[in-house]
């Protein structure tokens, strides 16, 4: 049975798609069978990323790893209940079709609350949530009193994840591992960074998530998309050349994958 990982956060631009594609290509490089599912039917950034990669493979005549990719469309049904029924059936049929032939299923979700995103969270063995070092991002996890970090109420995203965690437990009698990844961090120490760290630490105890190291802010992430490339592809094409920034970024990627603690994933020189 495939291990299902959802990249989720009800906020656009936090790094869900970037983390998802890096996880997908890393797992493929480690020799696993990986399926990817795009539930962000408006933006479809993951789908475009993978299509860019396919075009790059053809135009350069090189071979790069590709996942088995699926996109789930929004139902055209006007009646909301009917629409959800149709979307739910399509989703569960897809998962049962692909879960026996793959080691991992990585699901990318939109930065908003949709029926399919909620459903996918309830199916996930792990949810990875990239957040940026800003109290706007922290607010989705928990409402914190400015003068008293001890006073915390759940934020909208925490409440949603909690609800889906309970649904998963009821359906499959299995736990969901919730992982927060700090993305686009600055490499220098500053007061904001330390305050965010303190706040997230409090929230993690209250809402039961783990915090793993993420990626620093690097221009390279914005450039890779056009050719559908990832940090893992350095060396396979001269479009991503090894330099000190790439080496440091790949180090962060390995640390991130290691900290996810996925089943049967032992990092070796292949990444
Ligand atoms: N660590 C990073 N450094 C620099 N840019 C980043 C980083 N992570 C993501 N980005 C850029 O930020 C934007 C949003 O990232 P994306 O993965 O599309 O977020 P989401 O899927 O959550 O909306 C993209 O332009 C992406 O290239
Ligand atoms: Mg996205």
UniProtKB/TrEMBL annotation:
Record Pfam families: MipZ (PF09140)
SUPFAM superfamilies: P-loop containing nucleoside triphosphate hydrolases
InterPro entries xrefs: DNA_Partitioning_ATPase, MipZ, P-loop_NTPase
Protein name as catalogued: Chromosome partitioning protein
Entry superkingdom: Bacteria
Lineage: Bacteria, Pseudomonadati, Pseudomonadota, Alphaproteobacteria, Rickettsiales
Source species of the chain: Midichloria mitochondrii (strain IricVA)
């Amino acid at each position: 049975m495939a291990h299902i990982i959802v990249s989720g956060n009800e906020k656009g631009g936090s790094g869900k798609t970037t983390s998802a594609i890096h996880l997908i290509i890393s797992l493929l490089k480690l020799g696993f069978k990986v399926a990817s599912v795009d539930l962000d039917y408006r933006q479809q950034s993951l789908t475009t990323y993978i299509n860019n990669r396919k075009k790059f493979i053809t135009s350069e005549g090189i071979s790069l790893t590709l996942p088995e990719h699926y996109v789930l469309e929004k139902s055209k049904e006007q009646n909301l209940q009917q629409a959800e029924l149709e979307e739910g059936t399509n989703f569960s049929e897809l998962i049962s079709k692909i879960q026996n032939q793959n080691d991992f299923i990585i699901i990318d979700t939109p930065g908003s609350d949709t029926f399919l995103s909620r459903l996918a969270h309830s199916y996930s063995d792990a949810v990875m949530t990239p957040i940026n070092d800003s109290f706007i991002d922290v607010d989705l996890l928990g409402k914190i009193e400015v003068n008293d970090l001890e006073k915390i109420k759940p934020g909208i995203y925490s409440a949603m994840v909690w609800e889906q965690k309970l649904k998963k437990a009821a359906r499959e009698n299995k736990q969901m591992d919730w992982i927060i990844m700090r993305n686009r961090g600055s490499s220098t120490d500053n007061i904001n960074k330390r305050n965010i760290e303190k706040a997230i630490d409090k929230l993690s105890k209250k809402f039961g998530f783990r915090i793993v190291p993420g990626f620093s802010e690097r221009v390279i992430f914005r450039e890779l998309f056009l050719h559908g490339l990832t940090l893992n592809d350095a060396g396979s094409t001269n479009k991503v050349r090894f330099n000190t920034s790439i080496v440091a970024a790949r180090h962060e990627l390995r640390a991130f994958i290691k900290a996810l603690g996925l089943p049967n994933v032992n990092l070796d020189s292949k990444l």
